[in-house]
């Protein structure tokens, strides 16, 4: 996913905790169990903020991938 295409979910901070200005996404890095690490910069004070977004719990009703034959 390109950073400019990123749309913050409800779990991602959208305003700077220091000055309440908007945040711009710098990068999104995939983590374990589907989590994502969002690095954002404040558009006013320049502060850097990191949010960790938890991935969805594995769905037990979805079929497991079949092994390659």
Question: How would you describe this protein?
Answer:
This protein is mainly β and 69 residues long. It has one domain: N-terminal domain of TfIIb. Helix content is 0%, strand content 30%. The protein has no helices and three strands. Strands 1-2-3 form a three-stranded antiparallel beta sheet, with no helix packed on it. Strand 2 (36-42) and strand 3 form a beta hairpin. It is elongated, with a radius of gyration of 16 Å. The protein starts with 22 loop residues before the first strand and ends in a 16-residue tail after the last strand. The relative contact order is 0.23. The model is unreliable at 60-66 (pLDDT under 50).
Describe the secondary structure blueprint for this structure:
Elements: E1 23-30, E2 36-42, E3 48-53
Antiparallel strand pairs: 1-2, 2-3
Q: Summarize this, please?
A:
This protein is 0% helix and 30% strand. It has 69 residues and is an all-beta fold.
Number of strands: 3
What is the CATH fold-level name? Answer: N-terminal domain of TfIIb
Overall mean confidence score, pLDDT:
76
In angstroms, what is the radius of gyration? 16 Å
Task: Please tell me the CATH architecture by its name.
Answer: Single Sheet
User: Class, according to the CATH hierarchy?
Assistant: Mainly Beta
Q: Give the biggest sheet.
A: 3 strands, antiparallel
Strand numbers in spatial order across the main sheet = 1-2-3
Number of domains: 1
